[in-house]
């Protein structure tokens, strides 16, 4: 392939742009915030699951507490009725004795139920404390995620701004270089990431290998408009005043 030396040199400008654009794309997908956000979101999901279970436990205990309260209240009301009958003194001696025995039984029953009620209350307080602690941790996690997302968005905005500025002259360069040479450049770059490299101080800027004298002699003898390829990496090799020929 033939191309004017000026067009070949412009390939280096194009490569510089494309290299920086690749670096920007890599930076965009490898922001440190991304990994940290993903990790914290995973932890947030686990906390949300724990919160669902903890709140469900609080609701279950609340229903248990309501049943315990109802049982205690029922015994108290029965004892109040018996006490009223006993205080009124109505009924036979045998009936009044039975009421007295029932009151004693109800008192024992009430103590047992109040112990159950106290145990349920203690479990309710512990469960509510667990919920509050989980909610506090989840809120702190949410704040950290929000801060990281804001930092991520700021960095992405900076990268977008830089990408716009870097890519602006690219279309003009393509026109200066020409479709055929750009086509070769794109084909090589698609497989190696670098389509064109400068020959600087007898070294290929693509593979960073120093060329032997035979290869240098071949390059030196080649017409200025001949498009050269590195024998090692097959990238377009652009001669410059610093090539050392």
Structure characterization notes:
The protein has a four-stranded mixed sheet. α1 runs antiparallel to α4. It has 245 residues and is mainly alpha-helical. The longest helix is centred in the middle third of the chain and has 75 residues. 12% of the residues are buried. It has six helices and four strands, in the order αααααββαββ. A hairpin with a 2-residue loop joins β1 and β2.
Question: What's a quick, concise take on this entry?
Answer:
With 245 residues, the protein is mainly α. The chain has six helices and four strands.
Name a few traits of the molecule.
4 strands, mainly alpha, single chain, 6 helices, rod-shaped
Please work out how many helical segments DSSP would assign.
6
Q: For the residues shown, what is the average pLDDT? A: 94
Profile the largest sheet: 4 strands, mixed
Shape: rod-shaped
Ranges where pLDDT stays below 50 over 5 or more residues in a row are: none
Provide the fold topology:
Layout: H1 5-29, H2 32-88, H3 93-167, H4 170-177, H5 179-192, E1 196-200, E2 203-204, H6 213-221, E3 228-229, E4 236-239
Parallel strand pairs: 1-4
Antiparallel strand pairs: 1-2, 3-4
Helix pairs in contact: 1-3, 1-4, 2-3
